[in-house]
Amino acid sequence: MGISLRTIPIKYDNKSVIDIAKNLVQYSRTKLIEVHHHFIQDHVKKGNAILEFAPIDLQLADIFTKPLSEDHFNFIHQELEMLDFDA
Hints:
The protein has about 90 residues and is an alpha+beta fold. It is about 40% helix and about 10% strand. It contains four helices and two strands; from the N terminus they run βααβαα.
């Protein structure tokens, strides 16, 4: 299928979070980061995952989590290559 499973791309819409995960230095403001952020940071360090920036309007998971306008729904539907099913 042409999919590499060596690294898992994680798309995120916050550049600051991506920078903190890539920079392993602990700052005073990052001490209270939740456990799942440390989990992701560990996997980025190990090379199992890579964080990539994705603008808010290209978040494909929105189709499952938010009410969308018809245009935005159709755009995400097309990007996910979902098939139309008429009952």
